[in-house]
């Protein structure tokens, strides 16, 4: 299995078992991809483990597909803000069919097609999930799409709408625009009526962002991000900066923020957590 910063899909129907989706007796064996010690993805092992027992407020999910996101790589390396006890199965989101529900769960039932945010545990044939982290899947959505939806689109929607309050006509700068959360930010930004400037490290990645609706493209491996944003905005800067990358790109991007601009710190895929020159926040009245 290959893990990367961009959301990918793991299909347990072909990778883990031939009988996904069928109900098992409690504690009967299931396949799970396990992390037994912090390290790279190559150290994960596939083993038989007991099927999880559900609590009163949980559902038991037969996993049909699981999303792979950047936090999963951090969790298995011991670099995330929480550290599950060993051994654990990674995987923060999944989609599948409910096999059983706890006695306090009344709005969901066995057989329902759902997506779920699990924190960890999704790289297994079954996972127990609190009912409040589970949502029905529309009939038009397949399992693989649903498995990669909640974390990327949920993160970007929360950031752009609830935190930045992005308005129609404003300029949105998206760093890492072809990655999972970045691409979702491009699509949501356009849906909210913003002018979207997509920034990425190659022409191939930028073409993906263009197809998602980006209005302007910046290849920051070939040109100055700061200079290009200023040129594209006639010196006004970006009203909202969406940054899942951090590092050197943050250092350039923060100097392109508009008056009363909003900075969305989403992650640090570059590996370096940057420091904010607080005088810039003062001068631009930045949030």
From TrEMBL:
Domain Enoyl reductase (ER): 39-287
Taxonomic lineage of the native organism: Bacteria, Pseudomonadati, Pseudomonadota, Gammaproteobacteria, Pseudomonadales
Domain of life assignment: Bacteria
GO molecular function, one term: oxidoreductase activity
Alphabetized SMART domains for the sequence: PKS_ER
Pfam family, one: ADH_zinc_N
Origin species: Pseudomonas syringae pv. maculicola
Protein's name according to its UniProt entry: Oxidoreductase, zinc-binding protein
